[in-house]
């Protein structure tokens, strides 16, 4: 069996851990930041934030040309610190929330899928993480 490549993306968000956690986990907020580019959006967001709970984010191209469900099951939840989940294709994802002096560093580590290049996947996940940072920091003004 081939070992899955692990990819890491990260960002620093200048906000309280409580706000970051709320915006990361609340369906109404997820719909506002969960896209890799302006021509995509999340049309549906369901989040049962508990171990064994499921989440589903429906991501679609705004022109209606393509869409997919991003879904999985939570394995670990430590409020304001860590979320780990397994996607339906058995890939693992871990999200760490690390408080530092001037904000919170968010580190996402995920198993690569085999359809797209690791670099393309890293770019896509980083773009979504950057959107999260922008969304949280703009909402503070």
UniProtKB/TrEMBL annotation:
Occurrences of domain Activator of Hsp90 ATPase homologue 1/2-like C-terminal (ranges): 14-137
InterPro entries the UniProt entry points to: ASHA1/2-like_C (IPR013538), START-like_dom_sf (IPR023393)
Record CDD domains: SRPBCC_CalC_Aha1-like_4 (cd08897)
Family stated for the protein in its record: Belongs to the AHA1 family.
Protein name, UniProt field: Polyketide cyclase
Organism: Flavobacterium psychrotolerans
